[in-house]
Amino acid sequence: MSSLELHHIEKSYGSYHALRGIDLTVEQGEFIVMVGPSGCGKSTLLKSIAGLEPITSGTMMINGRDVTHAQPGDRGIAMVFQSYALYPHMTVAQNMGFGLRMAKRPKTEIEEAVTKAAQILRLTDQLEKLPKQLSGGQRQRVAIGRTITRSPEVFLFDEPLSNLDAALRTQMRVEISTLHAKLGATMIYVTHDQVEAMTMASRIVVLNAGRIEQVGSPLELYRNPDNFFVAGFLGAPRMNFFAGRVVQVSTGHVTVQCPLVEPFDVAVVDNAKLAAGDSITIGARPEALGIGSDGGFPAKVHLVEHLGRETILYADAGALQTIGSDTGTGNLTVHLPDVAPFTKGDPVHLRFDPADAYLFGGDEQATLSIPKSI
Amino acid sequence: MPNFWRQHRGWIAPTLFIMPAVVLFGVVIVASSVQSLWISLHDWDGMSPMHWVGLGNYQELFRDPQFFTSLKNNCIWLVVFMLAPPLGLGIALLVNQQIRGMRLVKSLFFIPLVLASVAVGVVFTWVYTPGFGLLALVFSAFGATAPALLSDENLVTFAVVFAALWPQVAFCMVLYLAGLNSLSDDLIGAGQVDGARGLNMLFHVVLPQLTQVTFIAIAITAIGALRSFDMVSVMTQGGPFGSSSVLAYQMYEQSIFSYRFGYGAAIASVLFAIMLVFIVWYLSRIMRADDRGA
Amino acid sequence: MYPRPIAPNAKAHRALYMGLVIAILLAWLAPLCAIILTSMRAPKDIATGNLWGWPTEFGLVDNYVGVFTQTPMARFFLNSLMITIPSVLGVLILSTLAGFVLSKFKFRGSMLLFAVFVGGNFLPAQIMMIPVRDLMVRLGLYDTTYALIIFHIAFQTGFATLFMRNFIAALPNELFEAARAEGASPAQILIHVVLPLVRPALAALAILVFTFIWNDYFWAVVLTISDSVKPVTAGLANLRGQYVSAWNTISAATIIVAVPPVVMFFLMQRHFIAGLTMGAVKG
Ligand SMILES: Nc1ncnc2c1ncn2[C@@H]1O[C@H](COP(=O)(O)OP(=O)(O)O)[C@@H](O)[C@H]1O
Ligand SMILES: [Mg+2]
What we know:
The structure holds 3 protein chains of 3 kinds. In chain A, the strands form 4 sheets. Chain A has a 6-stranded mixed β-sheet with strand order 6-7-8-3-9-10, sandwiched between helices. A 6-stranded antiparallel β-sheet of chain A has the order 13-12-11-14-20-21. Chain A has a 5-stranded antiparallel β-sheet with strand order 15-19-16-17-18, with no helix packed on it. The model of chain A has no long low-confidence stretch (mean pLDDT about 90). Chain A is built from 8 helices and 21 strands. Chain A has 2 domains: about 1-230, Rossmann fold (3-Layer(aba) Sandwich); about 240-370, CATH 2.40.50.140. By secondary structure, chain A is an alpha+beta fold. In chain B, strands 1-2 form a two-stranded antiparallel ribbon. In chain B, helix 1 (about 1-40) crosses helix 14 (about 260-295), helix 3 (about 65-80) runs parallel beside helix 8 and helix 6 crosses helix 8. Chain B has helices spanning about 1-40, 55-60, 65-80, 85-95, 100-115, 115-130, 135-140, 155-180, 185-195, 200-210, 210-225, 230-235, 245-255, 260-294, and strands at about 40-45, 50. Helices cover about 75% and strands about 0% of the residues of chain B. Chain B has a domain at about 60-120 and about 150-295: MetI-like (MetI-like fold), CATH 1.10.3720.10. Chain C folds into 2 domains: about 10-70, no CATH class; about 70-275, MetI-like fold. In chain C, helix 4 runs antiparallel to helix 9 and helix 4 (about 75-105) runs antiparallel to helix 11 (about 230-240). Chains in contact: A-B, A-C, B-C. At the B-C interface, helix 1, helix 4, helix 5, helix 6 and helix 7 of B face helix 1, helix 4, helix 5, helix 6 and helix 7 of C. Bound molecules: adenosine-5'-diphosphate (ADP) and magnesium ion (MG). The site of magnesium ion has 3 residues of chain A, from helix 1.
């Protein structure tokens, strides 16, 4: 029996399709992170699971119970909101006990649950304070504490860390992961921050325009993205993409050509259905690009980010037709694992090993090939 | 059954919550207003059965010189009342200073706003009283004799409107004071840096930021002018000889004193039609602002 | 700040400015002062036009005692309280319920319903006068305080619903979603979340609606005739007819009508202004 099952969930706001057929099965104890660009429907999906937004069609099961039409309070879920949504007129203890009080549980039980949650979240000294007397991190913990007291079957988090500063965010990330390990509960966590996704998830769900693009463990998604979108979404800095063309098709591999690079052979999946002359997209992670004193192709440094031990170069290789680059056409991002004494305007020779290439093509921009080295 | 309740409380509860307001407002306010339109097509004395006359009441209305007097007076109210927003703005600018005691001064300026209009009517009747009212005293101080405003057919409406202006100016002042307090200091600062001062600043920086306040001040003042009843009733009862009557008062007089409910309803309907212009204008802007805000 | 603040150290300038403002204020309140002074004078002074000079004889006590003993003003005052207080309570309850639903529940026609509440509030009283009067006659409530209470609750609910809806709409949605996610029913949300958070709005609304209802004159004359139910406003208008030139008595009665709203205003000025200007300033 799975903890949460979503069968073909659809949700429209008038004529706008916010969710387009979501299917997902979550096992007991998993930490699922949903990522996707802003407006892709993450909050909508989470609120649909919580029962806060009615869905247009589809079914939903929690621990084997059909909850498609159940009230939010009857679903066995608890939710942490982006703005925390603490009741400003209630103390921390009252905030944390509110759910149980609404369920008309005995006072002693409420007190016990609140005390226990406060201990787990180190809030014991704050119980009599009002939310406005707390720091951002403490408010965040109260919001989490409020979900713990009800011991729900599924925890839902909607971008809970986006209102915190960077240092606190890292700390809370660790705390939430620790809490997950301690409670062993199923958690569904929405974020648009891929670092949170990569570090916290047992599985990541990538959403785009109301659809699931891919589901898998962080490394699976990083190594083996199903398509152009997922490849571009996960990994920082972003993967470089540039336009290429198929020049020859043989069994199991194709020969690909693009400006500045010698034609090269790439192994492709069987059902790639490529023909000579097809346009394709070539992908290369910034880590897969290197520099040399000669060879490769010439480019010009456009911007340098010195990160201490590592260096990120934004280089302009004019003839290469980059796609969806953050910094403009012809721009490549290069991630060097060492200190590199470049400055803006320096000429460089970029090296690209075809063995590190991803290949995307077809109508869906599906992945046709991933690097051999992985 | 409890299960049914749990499943459906999502819409049953809000329906129950809003019902009392909807029913009461719907029956007493909305249905009554619609019913008046219906009554205006009848001859009715309030007791015997209604007698259908179609547009007869309206035809009579357009031959009734008193109707045109009232309509003209309503126009005077509307025009003179438009002094309230600028005067209110003026006082607001005057008292928008942080000096000790200014808070109390502001509160004292507000007072006419909370007075009952009946009280304002009595106060100004006393002010206008020939011989020893305040106005007469002022005139005699200059060696002149004050006109008997409330018995002069040509001046009486202006005298009443002037009295009604008193609380209306206070209302506009309150609006503008709140508006001035919500002004963005940055914008004022930017204006100062750009060299705007005094009236230039007022017209090019301050007022453009107060358009919503100005709109509400004008709309509510216009609606208030058309609704005027209390002051006329208390100060002149429409007199002398109907010369200070307004549509609202004429309607009341026709219905309550002459038992001509159909005719009264027709007058009310005309008044309603005129006001509808302002109400729709007001509503459409408020709702649009609301959409933007949401 | 606009106009530019007068510098705190420009003492002379400040004093001069304040003097000007106070002069204007005195002119502004002169009519009211005249009434107050008149209410303290004996009839003899008034008849001779001695309005501002030193009174030849004080009539303050006589006048006010006279209003309460020789006229039914005490009765009117009590009637006003008996009409206004229940009406205000009714309006607060109805508008909180309706405002909550209109702001936090999505349903078809909610915007239209809201527009009807707001628009109805601006209707001229005359357009509903005849049917309302007729309704009260048929219900047997004509010339009772209930007629006024019912009408005032109905009418003020329009404005009050607008007020409460806007206030509740400004409360963050996530607060309500959190409560729902925690299993609170709409009634529980109303009691445990909405009510504690709208208390300041209720205070502002209460004083505004109190003033509106206390000051009402039109419906008082349309729905009541007996002295035993009439509120102060209609009562004052009656006295005007009876005591045509007893200006000392009439002035005292006017002050009595004016005092409750003015006192309320001074006690809760901030709430009053906030309520009155709500909607005017934002957006
Ligand atoms: N109540 C609503 N009415 C109409 N459209 C909505 C509503 N809520 C969300 N949307 C739309 O649905 C899409 C998904 O929104 P959301 O789930 O909030 O995105 P995100 O992934 O950033 O959380 C957005 O394009 C948004 O504009
Ligand atoms: Mg979101």
